[in-house]
Structure to design on (622 residues):
C-alpha cells in the first residue's frame, strides 16, 4: 500500500518487501507443516489400499515398495473367495437394514415428542438418551449374554431372541443405534422453524396436514442423514456380533475381517483387500453426510 | 355462574370444551410418541443395566448359566476383586492409558485445528478431506492396517526406523514389551480420534469473533497469549465436552487391543473392559466380570456427568 504513496516511496518499499517476504516464508513453513501432517494422517489409509493392489511378493518384501508397480486384483479375488465372505455380506446387510428401519421409525416418534412438545419429564428423558450412549458395550454385553441364553430356553421368546441368532443381534444393536438416532433426529426437527407450521395451520391446514406437507419434506434430508449414520454404526459394530454370532455362516463382515489370520500366519495382501472392501461403503456414506452429523455430539456448545 | 355462562353463550362453552379436550390430547401426545422407544430402551438398556448390578452380587458360573439362576453371595465378588492385585494393576494401566491417549488427542487435535487456520486454501481442503477419510475408517479396519504397519517381519515401520538410523528394528516385535505395545495402541487410538477433535475445534474457532483477536493483537498480545486469553475461554465449553467424551471413549477401549493382539491378549494387555470381558467369557465367571464392569461404569460416571452438565448448560437442550 505504501508503495503507491507518492511521497518518498523509495525508502519504504524495501521494508515492506522484506516484511512480505518474511510473511511468505512463514506461510510456506506452515504449508509445509500442513503437508507433513497430511502425509502422516493419510499414510495408513494409503498403505492399506496400496498393499491391497500389490502382488504377493511385492507386498511381502523386506524393502517396502511405496507405489504398487505391478497392480493386480488378485488380493481382492482371493479375499472374496475366502469362505463365508458372501454369507457375511448378506448377514451384515440384513442386520443393518432392519436395525436402521426399526430405529428410525421409533426414533422419529420420540424425536417429535422431544422437539415439538413441552412436557413434564422432558429434560429427564434427554439426560437418559444422552447418558445411555456413554454406557460401555463391553460392560452391557455380560447381562445381555445372560438374558439371551435365558430367552433361548423360554418358549415363545426363543423364536426371536437367543445366542447365535441374527434377530437377537438386531434387538441388541438398538441399544446404541436408537438413542443416537433419537438425539440426532431431534436436532433436525428442532431446526425446522415453528413459524412455517403455524403459518400453514393459520391458513386452514390441520395439525396433521401441516406435519405431512411442511415438516416431513423439510426433515427429509435429516432422516436420510440419520439413517446413513445408523447404518455406519451398525455396520462397524464388532463386540456384540463377535460374542453372539458364533457359527461362521452367521457372522458379520467385521467379525469375518477380524478372524482373517490362518495357521500359516496373516496373509497381508488379501487382508488389506478385505479391509478395503469393508471400508468402502462406510467411507462413501460418511463423506456424504459428515457435515450434517458431525456436530450432534457437541451441538450448541459454542454460541458467541 | 358457569351454568349461566353456558346457557347464555352455548357456542363459546362448546369451543372451550373442545379446547380442553385438545389440551388433554396435547398433554398425552408426547408420552404416546415416546412410549415405543422408551419400551425398547427399557428392554435393551435399562433391564441389562439392572441385571449387571444384580449379577455383580451373585455367583454366576457355568453351572448357574445352565440353570439360568445365580446364587446370591453379597459383596463377595467385590471383595475378591479389591483384594486381587491384578485388578489394581489393570485399573492403573487403564487410567494411565486414558490420560496419555486423551492428552495426546486433545493437544494434537487442537494443534492441527490451529494449523488449519494458517495454511493455504489447497492444503486446508486436502487436510480436511484426509481427516474425514481417517474418521470414516471403521475401527476393525484401522486396527488391521496398524497391525500390518508394525508387523515384525514386513512392517513398514521397522524398515523406516532402521533406515533413519534410530536403531536396529529388523524383526523387532513391538508387542513383546507391553510398554511399546501400548505405544502402538495409543498411536492407533489417537490417530483415529484426532479428526473428530480437530474438526470440532476448527468449527469452534471459526465462530470466535475476529474483532476480538484483532483487538488483542493490536494491544500487543503475542499469538500464544491471544490463544490463551481470548480463544481458550471462548472455546472452553467445546473443550469440556471433547475431553469428557474422549475420556469416556478411551477408558472403555476394547476392540483396538483385542484385535491387535489376535483376540488373545496376555494379562499384560488387560484394560478394564478386556479384564471384565475375559473374566466373563473366557473363565465363565460372569458374576466377577459384572463386578469389574460395574466399577468401570462407576468410573465413567464422573466423566459422563461433566459431559451431560455441559450439554444441558449449552442451552441446546432447553
Amino acid at each position: 500500500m505504501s508503495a503507491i504513496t507518492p511521497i518518498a516511496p523509495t525508502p519504504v518499499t524495501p521494508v515492506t518487501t522484506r516484511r512480505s517476504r518474511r510473511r511468505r516464508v512463514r506461510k510456506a513453513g506452515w504449508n509445509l507443516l500442513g503437508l507433513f501432517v497430511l502425509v502422516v494422517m493419510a499414510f495408513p489409509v494409503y498403505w492399506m489400499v496400496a498393499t491391497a493392489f500389490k502382488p504377493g511378493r511385492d507386498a511381502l518384501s523386506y524393502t517396502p515398495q511405496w507405489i504398487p508397480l505391478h497392480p493386480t486384483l488378485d488380493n481382492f479375488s482371493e479375499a472374496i473367495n475366502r469362505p463365508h465372505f458372501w454369507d457375511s455380506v448378506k448377514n451384515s446387510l440384513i442386520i443393518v437394514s432392519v436395525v436402521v428401519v426399526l430405529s428410525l421409525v421409533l426414533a422419529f416418534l420420540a424425536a417429535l415428542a422431544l422437539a415439538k412438545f413441552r412436557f413434564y419429564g422432558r429434560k429427564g428423558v434427554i439426560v437418559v438418551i444422552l447418558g445411555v450412549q456413554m454406557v460401555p458395550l463391553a460392560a452391557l454385553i455380560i447381562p445381555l449374554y445372560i438374558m439371551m441364553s435365558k430367552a433361548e430356553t423360554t418358549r415363545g421368546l426363543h423364536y426371536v431372541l437367543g445366542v447365535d441368532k441374527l434377530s437377537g443381534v438386531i434387538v441388541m444393536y438398538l441399544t446404541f443405534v436408537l438413542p443416537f438416532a433419537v438425539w440426532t433426529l431431534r436436532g433436525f426437527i428442532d431446526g425446522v422453524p415453528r413459524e412455517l407450521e403455524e403459518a400453514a395451520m393459520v391458513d386452514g391446514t390441520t395439525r396433521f396436514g401441516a406435519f405431512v406437507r411442511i415438516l416431513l419434506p423439510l426433515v427429509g434430508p435429516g432422516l436420510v442423514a440419520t439413517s446413513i449414520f445408523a447404518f455406519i454404526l451398525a455396520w462397524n459394530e464388532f463386540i456384540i456380533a463377535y460374542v453372539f454370532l458364533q457359527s461362521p455362516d452367521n457372522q458379520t463382515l467385521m467379525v469375518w475381517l477380524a478372524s482373517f489370520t490362518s495357521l500359516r500366519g496373516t496373509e497381508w495382501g488379501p487382508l488389506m483387500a478385505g479391509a478395503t472392501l469393508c471400508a468402502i461403503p462406510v467411507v462413501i456414506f460418511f463423506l456424504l453426510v459428515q457435515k450434517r452429523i458431525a456436530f450432534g455430539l457437541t451441538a450448541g456448545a459454542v454460541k458467541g | 355462574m358457569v351454568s349461566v355462562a353456558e346457557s347464555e353463550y352455548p357456542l363459546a362453552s362448546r369451543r372451550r370444551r373442545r379446547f380442553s379436550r385438545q389440551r388433554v390430547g396435547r398433554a398425552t401426545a408426547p408420552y404416546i410418541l415416546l412410549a415405543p422407544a422408551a419400551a425398547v430402551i427399557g428392554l435393551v438398556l435399562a433391564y441389562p443395566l439392572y441385571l449387571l448390578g444384580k449379577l455383580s452380587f451373585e455367583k454366576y458360573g457355568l453351572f448357574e448359566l445352565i440353570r439360568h439362576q445365580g446364587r446370591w453371595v453379597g459383596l463377595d465378588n467385590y471383595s475378591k476383586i479389591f483384594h486381587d492385585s491384578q485388578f489394581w494393576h489393570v485399573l492403573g494401566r487403564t487410567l494411565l492409558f486414558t490420560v496419555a491417549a486423551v492428552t495426546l488427542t486433545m493437544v494434537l487435535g487442537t494443534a492441527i485445528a490451529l494449523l488449519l487456520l494458517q495454511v493455504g486454501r489447497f492444503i486446508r481442503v486436502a487436510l480436511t478431506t484426509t481427516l474425514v477419510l481417517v474418521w470414516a475408517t471403521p475401527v476393525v479396519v484401522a486396527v488391521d492396517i496398524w497391525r500390518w504397519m508394525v508387523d515384525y517381519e514386513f512392517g513398514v515401520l521397522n524398515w523406516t526406523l532402521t533406515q533413519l538410523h534410530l536403531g536396529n528394528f529388523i524383526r523387532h516385535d513391538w508387542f513383546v514389551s507391553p510398554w511399546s505395545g501400548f505405544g502402538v495402541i495409543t498411536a492407533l487410538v489417537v490417530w483415529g480420534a484426532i479428526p473428530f477433535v480437530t474438526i470440532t475445534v476448527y468449527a469452534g474457532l471459526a465462530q470466535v469473533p475476529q474483532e476480538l483477536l484483532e483487538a488483542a493483537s493490536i494491544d500487543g498480545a503475542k499469538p500464544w497469549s491471544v490463544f490463551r486469553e481470548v480463544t481458550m475461554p471462548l472455546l472452553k465449553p467445546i473443550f469440556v465436552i471433547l475431553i469428557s467424551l474422549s475420556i469416556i471413549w478411551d477408558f472403555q477401549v476394547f476392540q483396538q487391543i483385542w484385535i491387535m493382539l489376535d483376540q488373545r491378549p496376555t494379562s499384560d494387555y488387560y484394560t478394564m473392559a478386556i479384564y471384565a470381558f475375559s473374566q466373563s467369557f473366557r473363565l465363565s465367571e460372569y458374576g466377577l466380570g459384572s463386578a469389574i464392569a460395574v466399577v468401570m461404569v462407576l468410573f465413567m460416571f464422573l466423566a459422563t456427568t461433566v459431559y451431560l452438565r455441559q450439554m444441558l448448560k449449552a442451552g441446546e437442550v432447553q
